[in-house]
Specification:
three-stranded antiparallel sheet; alpha+beta; single chain; 5 strands; about 35% helix; about 160 residues
Length: about 160
């Protein structure tokens, strides 16, 4: 038989035949069925909790990168509306803007409308579209998104030229 000790909170046993209740007060002891309940609950809840936390990180990163792609499109469009701009200078500005967010230049697609931005006249609209495949910038995208998911931003501004 196990030795019992009396204290202010109840009676304690030095050892017990039930392993999960060793050293716990008698008033907290339930039945032997509750012994593994915490482990079973953890096994059910932990994967869902981890999925939610990873999803929050992934969504936060997607929103940050969407903002970065929009800012890159705005910067590139500012270059495109100036006199003497070329599609190469527009692409290099978008690439430089996205490199600060850790997006490599090989995955960036930049299109301008018109193709030669400086060919338009005064007050002509110029559009710049920057697109980045989400799978190139995320480690969890293949699990949650289709293979062709892109982050795309289009900005249109009017040309600034001397009349």
């Amino acid at each position: 038989m196990a030795k019992e000790f009396r204290g202010r909170l109840g009676t304690f046993r030095a050892s017990s035949d039930r392993r999960c209740f060793r050293g716990t007060p008698r008033w907290r002891k339930r039945d032997a069925v509750r012994c593994g309940a915490a482990a079973a609950e953890l096994a059910l809840v932990l994967p869902v909790f981890i999925l939610i936390v990873v999803g929050m990180f992934e969504l936060s990163r997607a929103l940050m990168l969407k903002h970065a792609v929009t800012a890159a499109a705005q910067d590139a469009c500012r270059v495109a509306i100036l006199d003497g701009s070329t599609s190469t200078s527009v692409r290099s500005k978008a690439t430089a803007s996205l490199s600060t967010s850790g997006i490599g230049p090989t995955s960036i697609a930049v299109t301008t409308n018109p193709t030669a931005p400086s060919s338009g006249g005064y007050d002509t609209p110029v559009s710049v579209t920057v697109s980045v495949p989400y799978s190139a910038i995320s480690s969890f995208a293949p699990w949650f998104l289709p293979a062709n998911a892109n982050l795309t931003a289009t900005v249109t501004m009017r040309r600034e030229t001397v009349k």
